[in-house]
Design brief:
Blueprint lengths: L5 E5 L4 H13 L6 E6 L11 H7 L10 E5 L5 H11 L3 E4 L6 H6 L2 H22 L8 E7 L23 H20 L3 E6 L1 E3 L8 H10 L4 E4 L5 E6 H14 L5 E4 L4 E3 H16 L3 H5 L2 E4 L14 H7 L7 H14 L1 H8 L2 H10 L4
Parallel strand pairs: 1-2, 1-4, 2-3, 4-5, 5-6, 6-10, 7-9, 8-12
Antiparallel strand pairs: 9-11
Helix pairs in contact: 1-8, 3-5, 5-6, 7-9, 9-12
Bound molecules: nicotinamide-adenine-dinucleotide (NAD) and 2'deoxy-thymidine-5'-diphospho-alpha-D-glucose.
Nicotinamide-adenine-dinucleotide (NAD) binds next to helix 1, helix 5, strand 5 and strand 7.
Length: about 375
């Protein structure tokens, strides 16, 4: 078991990072260290999602035992990143920060190359420089990646850790590139790294451009439900807390230089998922499901739309003893409940750049 003391979380104000910080500080007694959250607060980042954490664990808490520090900055900014390594004596990096939305990468790839490739390089190189004369046994750089690096599956088969990379969107190409850099820093410089490739996450705090929260909010607002192509693309869905418990297992026990696939073993065609979601939202929000189903519209397909993702996660189960805890039904219910209860968060995150972007690119469809 590793001792993790001063943990630099990048992208901790985004969907998965926010959930990770909540879990680590509130529900993980084995973690007694500090979290330093480095986030640029792009359209997808929201510091308000961590207001409770700031209050309880931040600098302003009254006990003088702060364990949470927010640092507003860009992972591409080398001198700022170096300052943070020194200031907090960072021994662990969990690298979530990224441009994460495939549609945006198609409309504007440059930000993806900057953040996902150059940003990851900057962090790796800063970690190498800071840790170069110290014992790397108690250091770790954990990189969060995606199953999209493996490309698209046909009707059968699964992605394993040895599946050849075949990224097909600017997003997945930028993530594949970052994965290769992470492994190159391990093999070339001996940097202690681990890497995980996860399938589609869902749950609280997810930005409403991604399928599940977008559809929930459109249902509640009586808007069209846009399905790409024939709706038969398949994704493997995992509840965000199950992803994060897997990340924590890798951070504690993962072998350096190894990669681990994480997935929900839970494949759904988009259109079938939407049908199930309509049932849940209609019941909870007292909507007429027939009317909600009538709002489904088939729209132009995403260019290069990967047909099917499915993860074989037997390695992490076998070697690290990880297992999922949240069923899809329970996870969807929790997610819908959360979006129904958190209208202020939704209004806040949609009030700025995102709405302008939706208007520009989709004419207000989102
Ligand atoms: P997100 O878009 O919700 O959040 C990304 C966060 O990174 C935001 O807080 C944003 O402000 C921050 N950020 C972006 N550019 C930055 C920069 N240059 N410097 C500092 N901070 C920056 O993303 P997410 O869904 O939480 O995904 C987190 C990670 O998990 C990503 O690396 C993504 O590729 C990976 N991942 C996501 C999923 C998924 O289904 N969401 C699945 C597998 C892997
Ligand atoms: O597989 C992991 C990846 O999952 C992560 O690496 C990405 O960061 C994350 O965004 C997600 O990528 P997807 O492209 O699979 O997620 P998205 O929610 O954008 O779309 C899920 C599926 O739903 C996909 O087949 C496209 C389809 N879709 C999406 C939207 C937004 C629609 O049919 N209509 C929509 O409006």
């Amino acid at each position: 078991m590793r001792t993790l003391s001063n943990v630099l979380v990048t992208g901790g104000a985004g969907f998965i990072g926010v959930n990770f910080i909540h879990t680590l500080l509130n529900r993980t007694p084995a973690f007694t260290g500090r979290i330093i959250n480095l986030d640029a607060l792009t359209y997808a980042g929201n510091a308000a999602s961590l207001a409770d954490i700031e209050k309880q664990f931040g600098n302003s808490n009254t006990t003088g035992t702060a364990r949470y520090f927010f640092e507003h900055g860009n992972i591409c900014d080398r001198s700022f990143v170096e300052t943070l390594f020194k200031k907090y004596d960072i021994d662990t990096v969990v690298h979530f920060a990224a441009e994460s939305h495939v549609d945006r990468s198609i409309l504007g790839p440059e930000a993806f190359i900057k953040t996902n490739v150059m940003g990851t390089f900057t962090l790796l190189d800063a970690a190498r420089a800071y840790w170069q004369n110290s014992n790397t046994a108690d250091k770790l750089f954990h990189h969060i990646s995606t199953d999209e690096v493996y490309g698209s599956l046909g009707e059968t088969g699964y992605f394993t850790e040895t599946t050849a990379y075949d990224p097909r969107s600017p997003y997945s190409a930028s993530k594949a590139s970052s994965d290769h850099l992470v492994m190159a820093y391990h093999h070339t410089y001996g940097l202690p790294v681990t890497l995980s490739n996860c399938s589609n996450n869902y749950g609280p705090f997810q930005f409403p451009e991604k399928l599940i929260p977008l559809m929930i909010l459109n249902m509640l607002e009586g808007k069209p439900l846009p399905v790409y192509g024939d709706g038969k693309n398949i994704r493997d869905w995992v509840y965000v807390e199950d992803h994060n418990s897997a990340v924590w297992a890798v951070m504690q026990k993962g072998v350096t230089g190894e990669k681990y696939n994480i997935g929900g073993e839970n494949e759904w065609e988009n259109i079938k998922l939407l049908d199930t979601l309509i049932g849940i939202v209609s019941e909870k929000a007292r909507l007429d499901p027939v009317k909600v189903r009538g709002a489904i519209i088939y729209v132009k397909d995403r260019p290069g739309h990967d047909r099917r993702y499915a993860i074989d996660c037997s390695k992490i189960k076998r070697e690290l003893g990880w297992q999922r805890e949240v069923s899809f039904e329970a996870g969807l219910e929790k997610t819908v409940d959360w979006y129904l209860a958190n209208t202020a968060w939704i209004d806040g995150i949609r009030s700025g750049e995102y709405q302008k972007w939706v208007e520009r690119n989709y004419g207000g469809r989102g």
